Amino acid sequence: MPRVSQEHSEARRQQILVGARRCFSTNGFHATSMQDLLNEIGLSAGAFYRYFPGKEELIRTIATEALEEVTDRLAGHLQQHDAPLSELLASLPTAPISALHDPDLARLIIQVWAEAMRDDELSVVVRAGLDRLTALLEAELTLRRERGELPADADPAACARVVLAALQGFLLQRAAFRADEPELFAAGFSVMFRA
Fold it and tell me: N or C terminus of the chain with fewer C-beta within 10 Å?
């Protein structure tokens, strides 16, 4: 049997991930059967199992990649903004982070959070992703405290958790309740941490 090139293998893996994201975003993890996945991605079960041992590993991979993308985009956004803290925070709801603007990805991330409550291995993946996001925000807020943009006694770790929780709430309200109010969140963020 001829060997499959690395490029072909990666393209097939991406085909599986894209199709699975579509299925999971529309129907959820548990309502999506393996047959639904196979029909969506256009592969046989044997071809699928060459890339993923099962649906759970596929879900963990999707979660990992989604959280890495959010972390990378947030890091880029923070690096590009040297504006005052209130302006930086106000920019977060409209930052170029696809999870904040892509309803399918937002629904998928919310399902990942819910699934993490029952899947210990997925919970570890989600926790690691949230820890990376918190660390990014904490580093930025520590720098801002040193510049005098936060009170000297402000705890950057606590503030980072609050900012992350607000972003999670924004994502949830947008995806689950169709509340498309980035301006409202931006206004709230702009006054949250005035020195």
Answer: N
> What is the per-residue pLDDT across 110-146, written as a single tens digit (0 to 9) for each?
999 999 999 999 999 999 999 999 999 999 999 999 9
The fold of 56-192 is Tetracycline Repressor; domain 2 (1.10.357)
111: left (phi over 0), alpha (psi -120 to 50) or beta: alpha
Letter string b/e over residues 123-155, b meaning 16 or more CB atoms within 10 A of that residue's CB: eebbeebbebbbebbbebbbebbeeebbeeebe
Residue 90 contacts residue 186 (beta carbons within 8 Å): yes
pTM higher than 0.85: yes
Whole-number Å distance between alpha carbons of 193 and 154: 10
Count of Cβ atoms closer than 10 Å to residue 110 Cβ: 18
**Superfamily in which the 1-52 domain is placed by CATH:** Homeodomain-like (1.10.10.60)
Summarised one tens digit per residue, pLDDT across range 37-84 is 999 999 999 999 999 999 999 999 999 999 999 999 999 999 998 899
Q: Which structure tokens are listed for 46?
A: 């044997």
DSSP 129: H
